[in-house]
Write a structure and sequence with these properties.
57% strand, mainly beta, 7-stranded mixed sheet, 118 residues
Length: 118
């Protein structure tokens, strides 16, 4: 069983930065982030392999978001910069498998709210 616990969400002004954290327990999987804005489908944000060497990013996040992991702490991070109001969403940590340009999730965290004000 995999357990994922996110933290680090909050309210930030447009142009600002925020770092999300996810602590993972259980088996070794690729882990990553998805997000869901009100009235929209959940979408892929970024993911990395167990080693952290292989990464995937959604095109709209490249250059603004950076994913990293610290296996010594069983932690995954998402550093978000140059935030825009359209980045407002609930961000979910997920564990699963990397695929060509994203990941296939099998486990989910409870989510953390990110709100970007204009």
């Amino acid at each position: 069983q995999v357990q994922l616990v996110e933290s680090g969400g909050g309210l930030v002004q447009a142009g600002g930065s925020l770092r999300l954290s996810c602590v993972a327990s259980g088996q070794s999987f690729a882990i990553g982030w998805f997000r869901q804005a009100p009235g929209k489908e959940r979408e892929f944000v970024a993911a990395c392999s167990w080693s952290g060497i292989n990464t995937r990013y959604a095109d709209s996040m490249k250059g603004r978001f950076t994913i990293s992991r610290d296996n010594g702490k069983n932690a995954l991070y998402l550093q978000m910069s140059s935030l825009k109001p359209e980045d407002t969403a609930v961000y979910y940590c997920a564990a699963g498998y990397l695929v060509a340009s994203s990941m296939t999730p099998g486990y989910w965290g409870q989510g953390t709210q990110v709100t970007v004000s204009s």
